[in-house]
Design goal:
- It holds the Pfam family HNH_repeat.
- InterPro entries: HNH_repeat.
- This protein is mostly helical.
- It folds into two domains: 3-55; 73-124.
- Helix content is 57%, strand content 0%.
- The chain has eight helices and no strands.
- The chain has helices at residues 3-14, 24-30, 38-45, 48-55, 73-86, 92-100, 108-115, 118-124.
- Helix 1 packs across helix 4.
- It starts with a helix and ends with a helix.
Length: 127
């Protein structure tokens, strides 16, 4: 599904009664079965607010007044590299399990969303 199709589906859902401002929950409840999920849209476009802006629809207010990124890209890559040194058969699922066992580690979703997918994570880490 290309960005124009994503935007059209978001616009369609936002036009429904109760759809504006468009929340992730409302979109996921009312999207067509073959449309991208909100999680996938966020992964592709970076944020729900950004996706809504690109689609020309109003987004709901963020749940936090301000969001401060705790992890720099370098911090995240350091975690990935530590994992890759230890892993026999690196995979996203194994990386996620490994991070959960580490003290004060980021979530695997944070890492993946920062770089745009597991392949991109490994590429950024030089693997």
């Amino acid at each position: 599904m290309d960005e124009a199709m994503v935007a059209a589906e978001m616009y369609r859902v936002a036009a429904m009664p109760g759809g504006s401002p468009l929340s992730v929950a409302f979109y996921d409840r009312h999207r067509r079965a073959d449309a991208l999920t909100s999680a996938r849209i966020i992964q592709r476009l970076g944020s729900w607010r950004g996706a809504c802006a690109a689609a020309g629809v109003e987004s709901n207010k963020p749940s936090r007044a301000s969001y401060r990124h705790r992890w720099s890209e370098q911090d995240l890559l350091d975690w990935v590299r530590r994992y890759l040194v230890e892993a026999e058969k690196p995979s996203y699922a194994d990386f996620s399990r490994w991070l959960r066992g580490q003290e004060d580690a980021p979530s695997a979703n944070t890492v993946r969303n920062t770089f745009g997918g597991w392949s991109a994570v490994r590429e950024a880490a030089g693997s």
